[in-house]
Task: structure prediction
Amino acid sequence: MPSSPLPVHSEGKWDPYASSTASSRTTTPSPSPSSPFTSLLNLLHPRKPRQRTTFLALLVLVFLSTYIFLVAQPSLSPLPLRSQPHPPADDSSSPWRNLANYAAKHRAANPTPPVRPQITLDPDQELAALTSFMAALPQNVVPGSVDPARPIDPSLVLDFDTRSPRAEAEIEEVVSDVWTRNPVVVFSKLHSPISREIKHLIYDMKLKPAPTVFEIDQRSDADVVAPMIYRLTGQPALPILLVGGKPVGTIDDIRDLIANGELKRMVIDAGARPTVTKKKNNKKGRR
Result:
């Protein structure tokens, strides 16, 4: 058998390390293809603890799931609901029948009262209710959804039950109270010269209680309140002077009433009193 040639260095000398490397290359076996069993053994290999723990956890989970769904399934079914016993239809002595009879007798003895209709306000009552509503708080505003051409819903401007048996009596109390507290009312327009003249004439009378002035054009609900006041007073435009809840008239009418003293009498009849200021007599002292 011919001997294998000795490994020779590039310069022609013998290299022992080259021979050992060549022999190792020839003797190393090629790896065999991996099988499923080999992969399973690799998972359980002590050099891979994380993979082994994961595999064991999955194995336990599969075992528990199999036990729960296949073995313990009957114990997980919902408990049957107990059916409530129904009262017998023909047993007149049963508690159910007695209770039904008692309820029927109670309804017959105490019938439900019918729902009372809401009160309807006439124009004078509506004007008084609107004035009382605006005078109570400056924040009180009429909703913009209200149609000023139609009577207002009483529940929007009254603070009592408008369907109660006493609703009619209470609205009369509102009418009396609002004109007693506000005998002179001016529905004004802030930048109107006529409004300024009327307010000046009324303020000069120094009334007690003082006149109540509403600057209608400055209110957020002016688009609803102004046409509502026109409808209730019969006046076409602002300003409008009310004495005792009744409109006095135009500015010319007011001037005439002041000139002949009739307005002062009307104001006194409404409950306001003009204040008379006494003039001080400045007497010179003796020297």
Notes: The longest strand covers residues 184-188. Residues 133 and 157 are 5 Å apart (CA to CA). The chain has a mean pLDDT of 80.
